Amino acid sequence: MKQKLLLLLAISCVHHKVKSQATDTTGTNQVMYFVSDTQQPMLVERLWLKSNHNIKATAGIFASILKEKPNSLYMLGDVVGLGASNRKWKKVDIFLDSCRRGGTTVCGILGNHEVMGLAKKGEANFQKRFPMNVSTGYVSITDSVAVVLLNSNFTKLTAEENEQQKQWYNSTMASLDTSTAVRAVIVCCHHAPYTNSKIVKCCSKVQDYFVAAYIKSKKAQLFITGHAHAFEHFKMMGKDFLVIGGGGGLHQPLNEKEKCLPDLAIGYKPPFHYLSVRRINEKLIAASHSINDDFSNFSTAYNFSTNNPEADNMAKAGNASVDELKKN
């Protein structure tokens, strides 16, 4: 009974927020920005991955976002290299304060680096910067687009918390599908369900807990993650999955062998990038912005429009089922 009351309260808050944003767009740029893995490279990572002016790249991404002043910014984990270190947050604090003073709403979700080492202190430091965060999932809405933000640090949650998040997520996705105030849904977590990275694997737990409800949803059109430090675009069961881990971490090589997952962005592999998404009617327009070789500016070299979720929600010919994908 208590869980049902909490769910109803959460959905009512979502509907109220949609209404307030949809009726007052004067002076706002109704676009959502997404960035992931802005952490400073750790010494141990440099033993097997090459650095490439990573801190400078992150500074460039932050400067570009501040210049554009999006309505909302979503930081998808690994914001800093070590969440428990107060020193690691100094530059991020300046950036977050500048975003909010400029009118940008900033939301975040926990990555593995936030809970690395002293997990409780790291999570407490994260919560100070992102007070709206709920460790078992929450919703943020911009221009009638609901962004569902999930915690994929499953080993840091208790069995009860993992089950609580799963139930909340499934119920929320079903409720958003029936809400007249929500026109599209984006799902986000840190760990990628699908990736060709040679450093990190496809997250089977994300597949088990989060993918099915995303595929089932009539309005969900994008599943965006980080963790793998690369840009990847997969089409699974008629739905789009993006990996956007190019916020400044050390670039990870990708598997290019025959058994790798089919990547629609095979020719687009910038080391540093962030994503913008805007809504046009019921479709979403996604664009990846990558830093130029001289680190002086950004270019938009990859963009696409999502399919109509009502007409193209189920699996297309040639796409594997969830069970088949889990075997990879």
Q: Could you describe the 3D structure shown?
A:
- The model is unreliable at 1-28 and 308-328 (pLDDT under 50).
- 30% of the residues lie in helices and 21% in strands.
- Helix 5 (159-178) runs parallel beside helix 6 (204-216).
- The chain contains 7 helices and 12 strands.
- The protein has one domain (30-326): Metallo-dependent phosphatases (Purple Acid Phosphatase, chain A, domain 2).
- The chain has a 6-stranded mixed β-sheet with strand order 3-2-1-10-11-12.
- It is of the alpha/beta class.
Distinctive features:
328 residues; alpha/beta; Purple Acid Phosphatase, chain A, domain 2; six-stranded mixed β-sheet; 7 helices; 12 strands; disordered N terminus; disordered C terminus
**Largest sheet properties:** 6 strands, mixed
Uncertain residue segments = 1-28, 308-328
Determine the fraction of residues in helical runs and give it as a percent range.
25-40%
The CATH architecture can be named as 4-Layer Sandwich
